[in-house]
Each structure stands twice: as structure tokens, then as C-alpha cells.
Amino acid sequence: MVAWTDFERATIKDIFSKIDYEVVGPAAISRCLIVYPWTQRYFAGFGNLYNAAAITSNPKVAAHGKVVMQGLEKAVKNMDNIKATFTELSTLHSEKLQVDPDNFMLLGDCLAIVVASQLGKDFSPEVHAAFQKFLAVVVSSLRRQYY
Amino acid sequence: MSLTEKDKAAVKALWAKISKSVDAIGAEALGRMLLVYPQTKTYFSHWPDLTPGSAPVVSHGKQIMGGVTEAMSKIDNLRGGLLELSELHAFKLRVDPSNFKILAQTIMVVVAAMFPNDFTPEAHVAFDKFLAAVALGLSERYR
């Protein structure tokens, strides 16, 4: 059971109400594929990932960015039980998609950077800390069903 | 994952935009690191105040970015050019090298928040590689 303070709960809900999923999701996934190019191994069917310009304009990448944001929203709506909420997703990533779980925090780091650039000064150190804790819980829950 | 000429050019271009704010970036990044990754506080138990914006944090953040600025001038030889700093971190400070990555991430979050239009994905990958190369340079003398 994760213990969230009132500030953390409010902050996470606030961040997700402020950010534009259509912008943040695609931007975070694109950054991950550009900054950590080995993550492209999981997106072989996405077509042209040849360079940064191709990745940022790739419609399949953008669509997947939105899928990721919808997954995160589930966690925001179930903050007291992210572990159980993500059981299926964890099994999916482990058994079907076969994603190296070390990659989850790479996407997490890119998300933090994209959210920081969206929120600017509003992404204060305290807000950043709450967001990082949220990401750590999400990543831990996604890792849980791996064996 | 060594720095290509393209990477170096991208890092220098980004640096030109952010260099006037390095002291502020350092203070922000260090303060954030202590708050966002509390395990890093273990290295600063001798400070009276570890909160963002406190005197020791601001002063030390400036010192750290001074080191990064020095690394910028040695960008063509980070492995051999940071030996003194490496010895300091290895023998005196005994910082576990995994923490360099943590500070690098917080530096980049601060740069993204302060310079969202300049910290493009291309600048991000080059800067990430640069900070990783600095970390390697700092680790050189560890064992």
C-alpha cells in the first residue's frame, strides 16, 4: 500500500488536469525513441523511425503516446491501488510485448522532462517530487508480474 | 555512445542558450535532487539545511555547474580531462557513480522547465550523452 499525502494526491490530479494528453503522450514517446534509440526495438511495426523528424511526425508513435496517457490516467483514478489496476498491463508488457522493465523508467524520465517543459515554473521541486513518486509506483506496478 | 561531432555542436548550441543561467540551474537541480531522490541526502548530512533554495544548496549547486562548465571546455577529452575531479569524487567524496545519472536527470528537467523551446529532442539526446560522458570522466579514477 502506497501512502500518499494530501499534497501528493492533489498534485498528481492537478498535473493530469493541466497537461494536454494529445501533446504530452506523443512528445514523451518520441523523446524516448530519440534519446534512448534502443527502445525502438519494441516498435518495429511503426514504420519510419529513421531520425528525430520522422519519429516526431510518425502517426503510429503519436497514437501510442495517447494510449500510454490513457494508461496513466487509470493510475491517477486509482491511486490507492495502482498495483492491482496494472496487473493486466504488467502481464501484457512481460509476456506479450516482452519489454525489458528497465526501459519503463526511461519513458518515465522523458515524461518528467516533457511535463516540466509544459508546466515551467509550476513544475516546482515539490510538484516534481510528487510526480517522480507517482512514476516510481507506476513503474513498480508494471514490473510486478514479470518472472 | 561517445559524442559525435553533431552531438558536440548540439551541446554547444544549447550551452550558448543556457550558460547565463548556470548558477540558477545548478541551485535548482541540486535542490530538486535532494527532494525528488531523497536517498541522495545521505551525502550531505553535514549541511544544516537541505531544502531547495537554502544557502548551502545554492552555493553548492553553483560549484557543481562550475564543474560542468569546465567539462564543456574539455568536451573533446572528458575521459582524461576530469582526472582531478574524478579523484575528488572517488577518494574523498566517495559518491556512488549511479548518482551521477540522477543529478543529470534533474539538471535536464530544470533546463526543460526553464528553456522548453531550446531543449528539443535533438538537444536532449546530445545533452544526455554529454552528461553521461561527464559521469564516465568522473568515474575514471574509481577503481
Automatic annotation (TrEMBL), chain A:
GO terms for molecular function: haptoglobin binding; heme binding; metal ion binding; organic acid binding; oxygen binding; oxygen carrier activity; peroxidase activity. One of its GO terms (biological process) is hydrogen peroxide catabolic process. SUPFAM superfamilies: Globin-like (SSF46458). Keywords: Heme, Iron, Metal-binding, Oxygen transport, Transport. It comes from the Eukaryota. GO terms for cellular component: blood microparticle; haptoglobin-hemoglobin complex; hemoglobin complex. Residues 3-147 form the Globin domain. Pfam families: Globin. This is Hemoglobin subunit beta-like. It comes from Oreochromis niloticus.
UniProtKB/TrEMBL annotation, chain B:
GO terms for biological process: hydrogen peroxide catabolic process. The keyword Endoplasmic reticulum does not apply. GO terms for cellular component: blood microparticle; haptoglobin-hemoglobin complex; hemoglobin complex. SUPFAM superfamilies: Globin-like (SSF46458). It comes from the Eukaryota. InterPro entries: Globin (IPR000971), Globin-like_sf (IPR009050), Globin/Proto (IPR012292), Hemoglobin_a-typ (IPR002338), Hemoglobin_oxygen_transport (IPR050056), Hemoglobin_pi (IPR002339). GO terms for molecular function: haptoglobin binding; heme binding; iron ion binding; organic acid binding; oxygen binding; oxygen carrier activity; peroxidase activity. Pfam families: Globin. Residues 2-143 form the Globin domain. Coiled coil: none annotated. The keyword Transmembrane helix does not apply. Keywords: Heme, Iron, Metal-binding, Oxygen transport, Transport. Belongs to the globin family. This is Hemoglobin, alpha embryonic 5.
